[in-house]
Amino acid sequence: MIDVTLKNFESEVIAASLQTPVLVDFWAPWCGPCKSLSPVLEKLEAEYAGRFKLVKINSDVEQQLAAAFGIRSIPTCILLKNGQPIDAFMGAVPEGQLRQFLDKYVPSEGVLQAEAGRDEADALLNAGDPDAALAQLQAALQADPDNDDARFDYARLLIATGAIAEAQAAIAQPLAREPKVPRFHALAMWIDAIVFAQTDPRGQWSSAQFDALIAKNKRDFQTRYDKARVLVAADEWTQAMDELLEIVMRDKTWNDEAARKLYVAILELLAPPPNKSTAAAPGKSNGGIELTGDAEQQVQDPRVELISTYRRKLSMALY
């Protein structure tokens, strides 16, 4: 439990909530229900062992914060995630009701283990140990089988290391969902391209062989598409999209829009991992409260500009 003031509100509440749910307890020394609620909250914070963070704000002293959150009575507890209030309750509610409230939003042990496994896998990949990274991601999925981020990372690394059959098994369940999950269908199209390159006679062709046929007939869309699939299998993403774009510009509907679908799949595969949070504007909380200190500036991922450029190209070709 941490006492929060306007001075440390940004770091202890807003910034902290980008990583872990933060429960803000607005209280006052004269409030009887506050005194009965406080030990229960502290007990649950210890029991949940870091799955949420408890902070306390004296509403008599920190009137600007109380006003910003519209506090009308105390105790009032507000839960924040990703810098935003998502739910609240008032009064000294029973312990069982508090658990129900927390369990709606606080990650389970399995979720935390899976996220930790993903982080460790990233570190292992950066250190050049894909086998250990795969083991971490497999353990993450065992801890939280519903974690699509861990499943996507696991399947993608399996594909990158040549374990195609294992990757197909890993994505079978999300591929069967409705509505479809685009990033898993993108993985499936990547797998299809690799299988084509490995098993089809054209999969061994050089670019010059494809280009010779295309030069004779600019509308030889199957040859263009096959060339694009070979490029995808070789991780030549932009060259593949350039070839697919030529098909889209000439015939948007060819082969049930196969070129557009593969193009969009490549954009999915190139997309950087989604941010876990949306940072507040410098000097302000997400609720608009003036804060002290400087907000960390995020570095633009170069993939974002590449994706934006190729999305514009596809949009122009389609419309």
Could you explain how this protein is built, in words?
Among the domains are: 2-108, Glutaredoxin; 109-162. Helix 7 runs antiparallel to helix 8, helix 9 packs across helix 13 and helix 13 (254-270) runs antiparallel to helix 14 (302-318). It is elongated and about 85 Å long. The protein is α/β, with parallel strands linked by helices. It is 59% helix and 8% strand.
Brief write-up:
The protein is α/β, with parallel strands linked by helices.
Rg computed from alpha carbons, rounded to a whole number of angstroms: 26 Å
N-C termini distance: 56 Å
Poorly predicted sequence stretches spanning 5 or more consecutive residues: 276-298
* CATH fold assignment of the domain at 2-108: Glutaredoxin
By DSSP (H or I, 4+ residues per run), the number of helices equals 14
Which outline best applies? elongated
Query: Percent range for helical residues?
Result: 55-70%
Q: Write down the secondary-structure element order.
A: EHEHEHEEHHHHHHHHHHH
Count of individual beta strands: 5
Strand content: 5-15%
How do the strands line up in the largest sheet?
Answer: 1-3-2-4-5
CATH class of the domain at 2-108: Alpha Beta
Mean pLDDT: 90
| CATH superfamily placement of the domain at 2-108 | Glutaredoxin
Instruction: Describe the largest sheet.
Output: 5 strands, mixed
- By secondary-structure content and strand pairing, the structural class works out as alpha/beta
Q: Judging by the overall fold, what is the CATH architecture of the domain at 2-108?
A: 3-Layer(aba) Sandwich
